[in-house]
Amino acid sequence: MISPESITKRTFDYRTEFRPDELDEVRACTEAHGFAIVKGLLPDSIVEMLQREVQRVVDPDATLGPGDSRTHVSFIETAYDAWALFEHQPFMNLHRALIGTDELCVHRSAAIIRKTGSKVVTWHSDWAGYSQGPPKNTGDVLNRGLWPSGKWFYITGSRPTHGGLCVIEDSHLEDWQGPEGFKLTSDRRSFYKDDGGDESRYDDFDIPGLVPLITDPGDCLVFAHRTQHGAFSNQEEEDRLSCAVGFRDRSHHIETPWELPESARTFAAELPDHLKKYADGYVGIDQGWKAE
């Protein structure tokens, strides 16, 4: 297993870091290479608020212990203070630029706490669009859009020793066949070593094209819908906190096999009137739904 301490920031012959007002450049880098970093998108006050909200929503009773990790898949519904993001124009402008419209609705949200000693996140792509059959789970239903999958805030910073995010350069390209020395899994959502092993998602970082995303708490980590990504184990004493709120074009209607959850109805009802448009088209998520 590659040690996180041995992973250093990569240099490129193209720009990967951008100011919040360089929206065309962010979109171009994401389209060309599958990722981009928007520096300083959030001020310290919003970062500190999100840190509190992630802890409150994800681990309200402080039951997580060493080595634990927990993900909340409808974070924005009850992260009431985080609704301030909808009024933070640099954040909303980024989404408008990446999706190409002003007519946005909330698509998905999530927040994650990873305690000291939590395991690596194995390599995967969020996109379910390779599957031609009926959906088997909620990800198959929701993860078929062509908009960027990742617009994450690692609100305690992203660095290898702290469970930081990493991506594979150019892995979002439609004809990508996996890193050299690896084979894609049959669903094209991950890869494994080409040495006769099984199709288990790869869990190490000795990969051609690896890009560790080393960022500050207010930076936004953007990656495309097909981009392969994973995360190191958290080897620091501090909890690793992250969250994301993603949007889609409101005209992109999604038929879900579940009824609109009560929590999603409450979210739409409780949003202030001037923000209710962002819940128009929101389908929520029934985490327990699976195909029969």
Largest sheet: 7 strands, mixed
Mean pLDDT: 96
Q: What would the principal axes of the Cα set say about the shape?
A: globular
Major sheet: order of its strands? Answer: 1-2-11-6-13-4-3
Q: Order of SSEs, N→C?
A: EHEHEHHEEHEEEEEEEEH
Low-confidence stretches: none
The total domain count is 1
CATH fold-level assignment: Jelly Rolls
Number of helices: 6
**Helix fraction bin:** 10-25%
Radius of gyration: 18 Å
Distance between the termini: 38 Å
Structural class determined from secondary elements: alpha+beta
CATH architecture: Sandwich
Q: Estimate the strand proportion.
A: 15-25%
Descriptive notes:
- It is a single chain.
- The chain is an alpha+beta fold and 292 residues long.
- The chain has one domain: q2cbj1_9rhob like domain (Jelly Rolls), CATH 2.60.120.620.
- The chain is 19% helix and 20% strand.
- The strands form three sheets. The protein has a seven-stranded mixed sheet with strand order 1-2-11-6-13-4-3. The chain has a four-stranded antiparallel sheet with strand order 5-12-7-10, with no helix packed on it.
- The longest helix is centred in the first third of the chain and has 15 residues.
Structural descriptors:
292 residues; alpha+beta; Jelly Rolls; seven-stranded mixed sheet; four-stranded antiparallel sheet; 20% strand
